[in-house]
Design brief:
Elements lengths: L3 E5 L4 H11 L3 E9 L8 E10 L7 E10 L4 E2 L8 H12 L3 E2 L30 H5 L37
């Protein structure tokens, strides 16, 4: 059976996750976000939580909860519903810039860096994040000699700028 997907209002995120757990979706699989800042009607992050109902042997049911969180708005933490969500919420906060309220992983330290080095600035999984390393050296995306982005040897092929490559106004490569 395919996973069920439920759209959730951001204000009801915590209640929806707790309700799903109470319905039997008690196995927490993962939580993350998808950058939807390009959506002109409702820019923000799609926060997703994947849960499973494992009560019936051989009939695994999945549930995907999705909440569109407007840019800059906070979301309630679900660490009190699923303790395993703490790592996922820390990663999502760090990599996407999502503010979580009520986060408690039992350490008393709150949300803190998980993957990035101390002093790192930015949110690397947002589409707006410019990969500085790509400004200093060209994208190695050419498959054959002469197919690089700055080559005139392959006029019949459309040149596509790789994700995260800054525009030419960033400076010389």
């Amino acid at each position: 059976m395919a996973d069920e997907t439920r759209g959730v209002d951001p204000d009801g995120w915590h209640a929806a996750v707790a309700s799903a757990r109470d319905e039997g979706f008690a196995f927490f699989d993962w939580l993350s976000a998808v950058d939807r800042s390009h959506d002109e009607d409702a820019p923000g992050l799609d926060v997703v939580c994947h849960l499973y109902d494992t009560r019936e042997q051989g009939a695994l049911r999945g549930l995907l909860l999705v909440a569109r969180v407007p840019d800059g708005d906070p979301l309630a933490s679900v660490t009190d519903v699923f303790a395993g969500a703490a790592w996922h919420e820390r990663e999502t906060a760090e990599m996407f810039g999502l503010e979580l309220t009520g986060f408690d992983d039992g350490s008393g330290q709150g949300i803190r860096p998980l993957l990035l080095p101390d002093g790192f600035e930015g949110t690397p999984l947002r589409k707006s994040f410019q990969l500085a390393a790509r400004a200093s050296k060209p994208w190695p995306g050419g498959k054959e000699p002469g197919e690089g982005h700055e080559s005139a040897r392959s006029p019949s092929r459309r040149r596509v700028q790789a994700p995260g490559v800054p525009p030419p106004e960033w400076g010389p490569r």
